[in-house]
């Protein structure tokens, strides 16, 4: 189990530092219903990661490991494909990063966050976790890594839960600061939001390029063994 956790912690960290969801939860917390909507958004995020990871785990577990507990060939092919996607995506993001970070613009949909109902906020959190092109490949890769390791079901569930918790720190930390930080919380979260908005493209480009290379290496190793 320890080896699997070492494999998926990088993916979890990659999901946790996704700038756009972090900016979204901070903006939600700044709305009049911030306490409720921030909690609902975080719950939706956790559910989205859990469902996507569980689906991939269910797919990978029955046929993911050989008799010698080596990942199956299709797992290597999946990691190779995901790694290629992330490398290309990261390189593309890097080429499109603003030359001046202060000129970075947030997506237009973020301007409507203060008008979203709790139901829509929940759906937004779920979508950003499970359907986002930046986070979904990492969650799929983590589910495949856990499912293909030949672990007992209980250890698979624990491994996935640890992945989800770590991958949700980007939501849980701002929420905790808001709930426990008192009057200074808004200023602190505002500074975090500004930094993430200015550097989100560059951060994600480097992150996905590095994780993509790791997945490429894992895929080649599995296919060559």
Note down, in words, how this protein is organized:
This protein has 225 residues and is mostly helical. It has one domain (2-224). It has 9 helices and no strands. Helix 2 (19-29) runs parallel beside helix 8 (169-180). The two termini are 21 Å apart. The mean pLDDT is 84.
- Beta content: under 5%
Q: Structural class per helix/strand content?
A: mainly alpha
- Average pLDDT for all residues: 84
SSE topology string? HHHHHHHHH
Number of domains: 1
Shape: globular
The helical percent reads over 70%
Characterize the biggest β-sheet. none
Number of helices: 9
Q: Roughly how many Å is the radius of gyration?
A: 18 Å
Keywords:
single chain; 225 residues; mainly alpha; 9 helices; 76% helix
Layout of strands and helices, then pairs:
Blueprint: H1 2-16, H2 19-29, H3 34-63, H4 73-95, H5 118-130, H6 136-147, H7 153-167, H8 169-180, H9 184-224
Question: In a few lines, what is going on in this structure?
Answer:
It contains nine helices and no strands.
């Amino acid at each position: 189990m320890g080896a699997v956790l070492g494999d998926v912690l990088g993916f979890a960290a990659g999901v946790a530092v996704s700038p756009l969801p972090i900016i979204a939860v901070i903006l939600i917390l700044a709305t009049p219903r911030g306490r409720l909507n921030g909690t609902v958004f975080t719950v939706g995020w956790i559910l989205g990661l859990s469902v996507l990871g569980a689906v991939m785990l269910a797919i990978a577990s029955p046929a993911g490991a050989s008799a010698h507990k080596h990942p199956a060939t299709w797992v290597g092919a999946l990691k190779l494909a995901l790694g290629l996607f992330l490398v290309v995506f990261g390189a593309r993001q890097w080429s499109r990063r603003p030359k001046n970070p202060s000129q970075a613009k947030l997506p237009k949909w973020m301007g409507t966050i203060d008008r979203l109902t709790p139901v829509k906020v929940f759906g937004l959190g779920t979508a950003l976790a499970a359907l986002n092109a930046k986070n979904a490949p990492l969650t799929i890769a983590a589910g495949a890594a856990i499912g293909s390791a030949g672990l007992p079901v209980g250890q698979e569930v624990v491994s996935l839960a640890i992945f989800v918790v770590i991958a949700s720190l980007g939501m849980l930390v701002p929420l905790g600061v808001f709930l426990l930080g008192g009057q200074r919380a808004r200023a602190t979260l505002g500074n975090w939001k500004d930094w993430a908005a200015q550097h989100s493209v560059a951060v994600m480009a480097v992150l996905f390029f590095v994780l993509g290379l790791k997945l490429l290496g894992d895929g080649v190793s599995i296919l060559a063994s």
